[in-house]
Amino acid sequence: MNTSFASDKLIRYAVAYVFITSGLMKLVSAELANGFMSLGLPYPQIMLKLVILLEVGCGILILVNKAVKNAVIPLIAIMIAALLLTKIPTLHTGFVQFAFNARLDIVMLALLIILYKRHPK
């Protein structure tokens, strides 16, 4: 088995798992939905539904290996927004606390970039 192919599959499965579960939790958890809507984004209910749709939809596309390069683009934007809106503000508590809070966001962003670079359009 080609090691690169196996690692690509593992990365796809991990990324899909995180985004699909994240989108579904925003859909079923009032606490998560309220936290999202309190970020100060314009049209928070529409933005929440859009993010849920993108996370679940793009996660499924990545899972089934369809349009992966196109599917990671909105997820990269979501991860950058998550870092800027929810993690950067924690820098005042210290860099180590920020690094801890941002660990999943940074790892997911790196994995999305790897998927983007490795998949043809």
Structure description:
With 121 residues, this protein is mostly helical. It has helices at 3-28, 30-37, 44-63, 68-87, 95-101, 103-118. Helices cover 80% and strands 0% of the residues. The protein is globular. It has one domain (3-118). The two termini are 24 Å apart.
Topology at a glance:
Elements: H1 3-28, H2 30-37, H3 44-63, H4 68-87, H5 95-101, H6 103-118
Helix pairs in contact: 1-2, 1-3, 1-6, 3-4, 4-6
Pfam family, one: DoxX
Transmembrane segments: 46-64, 71-89, 95-116
GO cellular component, one term: membrane
Short description:
Helix content is 80%, strand content 0%. The chain is mostly helical. The chain has one domain.
Strand content: under 5%
Helix residue percentage: over 70%
Average per-residue pLDDT, rounded, comes to 92
Q: How far apart are the termini? A: 24 Å
Sum up the overall morphology in one term. Answer: globular
Residue windows where pLDDT falls under 50 for at least 5 positions: none
Label the structural class: mainly alpha
Report the order of strands and helices.
HHHHHH
Count of discrete alpha- or pi-helical segments spanning 4 or more residues: 6
What's the structural domain tally? 1
The main sheet comes to: none
What is the number of beta strands?
A: 0
Rg calculated over all Cα atoms: 15 Å
Fill in the keyword field for this structure.
6 helices, DoxX, transmembrane, DoxX family protein, single chain
